[in-house]
């Protein structure tokens, strides 16, 4: 195991997130990356997450003795879960479900923390605290806990993102056709949201790695470059396209972090002439799966969304491109077209996208 350096971008991110959480009066949008460390994080070499320890302390960047690593691994999965007011406070501000996070405060956790000279440290979903440092009733304790919870989000893909049920219009009544309770509707949207995040993260990472390789002078992967040309009209082997490729990566990342934040609101099923602030009245008709208005965080879901489970994730990520970037379906610049960006992300994930593609031209 390796202890992350104290100046690691993920430490900066955790500090920034902890401060943001402490400033919040009520839940607001949470971005995954801190603005001042995005450039650093692009260049950071990250250790495999299963061997990385992130800690709050004055030291870092060293290998953990094998004996201590064994003790940490033996303790993982034990501890207790967050409960009550503390769990509610953190989940509402992060927009994340921390049910699988384990808190360790026993004598073993104290001893391990002392051996690492840490106030607290995190490995995966396990957070270990030194003596007297787990004090979530105090401001300093909340700040430290928020810092470590950020590390669980950074390290573990098993921390499930939440769609806040207060942001779903039919949370109390549910739906008919399909017959779903309010809780089932929220869960279905949350599942689609989590899948959309996964698709976007894969597209972002794949394209960024490919761009880095191209800049280094390596030939592009033919299959990926074909998808890029067909969907976004860009070519990794064309140096003149690389700035626009980076713009596309940035846009994909913005949509992903928006979904991760729990910022969106959902109208469970729209009808005719739905008024959204900033746009003309719009209806759920024909082949419409959902619609949204630039600058408005409400996504209106249509019957097609519920009738087509395999299209739900793509629908949600598609609409966020509209919200952030005012992307017109008729835009002939593929890299500025929501359908093209959806098609790119899903094809990179190996999905058959049918009409949700710009391979035959911008939609």
Summarize the helices and strands and which ones pair or pack.
Blueprint: E1 2-3, H1 9-23, H2 38-43, E2 52-57, H3 66-75, E3 80-81, H4 84-94, E4 102-104, H5 107-115, E5 118-123, E6 126-129, H6 139-155, H7 182-215, H8 222-232, H9 242-261, E7 265-267, E8 290-292, E9 298-301, H10 303-307, H11 312-325, H12 338-348
Helix pairs in contact: 1-6, 3-5, 7-9, 7-11, 7-12, 8-12, 9-11, 11-12
Could you name the key traits of this structure?
single chain; 363 residues; alpha/beta; Collagenase (Catalytic Domain); 2 domains; six-stranded mixed sheet; three-stranded mixed sheet; 9 strands; 45% helix; 9% strand; globular; metalloendopeptidase activity; Lys_MEP; MetalloPept_cat_dom_sf; DUF4157 domain-containing protein; eCIS_core_dom
Element order: H for helix, E for strand: EHHEHEHEHEEHHHHEEEHHH
Largest sheet at a glance? 6 strands, mixed
What is the beta-strand fraction?
5-15%
Instruction: Count up the helices.
Output: 12
- CATH-level-2 architecture of the largest domain: 3-Layer(aba) Sandwich
Q: What is the CATH fold-level name of the largest domain?
A: Collagenase (Catalytic Domain)
- How far the N terminus sits from the C terminus, by CA atoms, comes to 49 Å
Show unreliable segments: 26-51
Query: Given the helix and strand composition, which structural class is it?
Result: alpha/beta
User: How many domains make up the 3D coordinates?
Assistant: 2
Which sequence of strands runs across the widest sheet?
A: 1-2-5-6-4-3
């Amino acid at each position: 195991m390796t202890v992350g350096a104290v100046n690691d971008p993920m430490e900066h991110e955790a500090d920034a997130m902890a401060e943001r959480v402490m400033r919040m009066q009520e839940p607001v949008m949470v971005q995954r990356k801190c603005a001042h460390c995005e450039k650093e994080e692009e260049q950071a070499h990250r250790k495999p997450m299963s061997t990385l320890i992130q800690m709050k302390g004055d030291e870092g960047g060293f290998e953990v003795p094998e004996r201590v690593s064994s003790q940490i691994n033996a303790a993982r999965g034990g501890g207790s879960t967050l409960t009550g007011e503390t769990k509610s406070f953190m989940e509402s501000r992060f927009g994340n479900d921390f049910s699988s996070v384990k808190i360790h405060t026993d004598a073993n956790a104290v001893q391990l923390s002392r051996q690492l000279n840490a106030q607290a440290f995190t490995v995966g979903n396990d957070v270990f605290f030194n003596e007297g440092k787990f004090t979530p009733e105090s401001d300093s304790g909340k700040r430290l806990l928020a810092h470590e919870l950020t590390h669980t989000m950074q390290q573990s893909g098993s921390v499930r993102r939440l769609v806040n049920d207060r942001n779903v219009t039919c949370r109390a009544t549910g739906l008919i056709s399909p017959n779903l309770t309010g809780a089932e509707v929220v869960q279905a949207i949350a599942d689609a949201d989590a899948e959309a995040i996964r698709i976007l993260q894969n597209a972002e990472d794949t394209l960024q790695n490919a761009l880095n390789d191209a800049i280094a002078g390596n030939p592009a992967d033919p299959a990926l470059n074909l998808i890029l040309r067909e969907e976004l009209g860009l070519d990794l082997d064309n140096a003149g396209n690389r700035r626009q490729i980076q713009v596309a990566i940035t846009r994909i990342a913005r949509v992903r972090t928006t979904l991760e934040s729990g910022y969106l609101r959902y109208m469970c099923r729209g009808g005719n002439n739905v008024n959204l602030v900033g746009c003309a009245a719009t209806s759920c008709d024909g082949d419409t799966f959902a619609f949204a208005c630039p600058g408005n965080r409400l996504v209106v879901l249509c019957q097609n969304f519920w009738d087509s489970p395999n299209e739900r994730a793509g629908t949600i990520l598609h609409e966020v491109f509209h919200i952030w970037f005012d992307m017109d379906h008729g835009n002939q610049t593929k890299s500025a077209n929501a359908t093209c960006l959806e098609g790119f992300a899903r094809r990179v994930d190996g999905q058959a996208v049918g009409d949700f593609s710009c391979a035959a031209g911008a939609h």
